[in-house]
Write a structure and sequence with these properties.
Layout: H1 2-19, H2 31-34, E1 42-54, E2 60-72, E3 76-89, E4 92-107, E5 112-123, E6 128-146, E7 154-172, E8 175-195, E9 198-209, E10 212-229, E11 232-243, E12 253-265
Antiparallel strand pairs: 1-2, 1-12, 2-3, 3-4, 4-5, 5-6, 6-7, 7-8, 8-9, 9-10, 10-11, 11-12
């Protein structure tokens, strides 16, 4: 009775957190979330939040939050994940972005899945008011290797290609501008589980517009995660994003380095 009540409460809290984030940056790496507890069936939950404050000679505050809900079944999986970040120094904002991503995954063969997804996001510092997209794609596991000396040492290489429709709204010269594109979305990912509690990942995305192949985005990300306590993992990620034809007068690339902890709720 208590377990069912706890699961329902966790689900509601996670969903509220996610729906409150309109969404973030131009490309979202959902691969780093995909494998999370995939061997377990049913609903799974993951929540995290941080708050930082400095006052006096230095004025600074920062808020971050993330949440996700997974459903793992025999033939169908799904997850919804969201994240937001807000930072300011005094009365000046230095970061304000967020995203929410929903994905359904159907297992059509041993190494192949068919997927559909929806996404919403915003990023004030690239003048992006909103970016909404819907798409579908095929993902294929190109390589699955298990060490003969240590069964917990595995390497997975996956490739994917698909189609998505994207709408964007930007701030421009005191007004706004809308963009609509059909894009290809493709990626290659590598997941190296060195030990049961030590994981290295990397992924690179390529998203060209069909009506203008000079309009493309590239995103690359590498990550490290290892356990520091039961149900508590340390995470490190470095991300590089490139937009060949930005709509507004912003830089064509963004680089970020992040570290923190992930808490599992089962």
């Amino acid at each position: 009775m208590f377990k069912n009540s706890f699961l329902k409460t966790s689900f509601i809290l996670t969903l509220i957190l996610i729906l409150q984030t309109n969404s973030a940056s131009a490309q979202i790496n959902t691969e780093k979330y995909r494998k999370y507890n995939s061997d377990e069936t049913g609903f799974l939950f993951n929540l995290a939040t941080t708050f930082s404050l400095k006052a006096g000679n230095t004025e600074y505050s920062a808020y971050t939050g993330s949440g996700r809900v997974d459903y793992n079944g025999k033939k169908f999986d799904a997850f919804i994940v969201g994240n937001f970040e807000f930072k300011n120094t005094g009365e000046t904002k230095v970061e304000n972005d967020g995203f929410v991503h929903l994905r359904g995954i159907t297992h059509v063969a041993k190494r192949t899945t068919w997927e559909i997804f929806l996404q919403k996001q915003y990023d004030e510092f690239i003048d992006l008011n909103s970016r909404d997209l819907a798409g579908t794609g095929i993902k294929y596991r190109l390589l699955e290797s298990v060490s003969k000396k240590d069964s917990t040492n595995t390497v997975d290489i996956n490739v994917s290609t698909g189609l998505m429709y994207e709408t964007e709204n930007y701030n421009l010269d005191g007004g706004t501008i809308d963009q609509f594109h059909w894009r290809n979305t493709s990626f290659v990912s590598i997941d190296w589980l060195i030990k049961s509690k030590l994981n290295l990942t990397s992924v690179i995305y390529y998203q060209p517009a069909f009506d203008d192949f000079n309009d493309f985005r590239i995103a690359a990300e590498g990550g490290l995660e290892f356990a520091i306590a039961k149900s508590v993992n340390f995470i490190f990620a470095i991300t590089y994003r490139y937009n060949n034809k930005p709509v507004t007068n912003v830089k064509i690339f963004d680089l970020s380095i992040q570290n923190g902890i992930r808490i599992e709720i089962k």
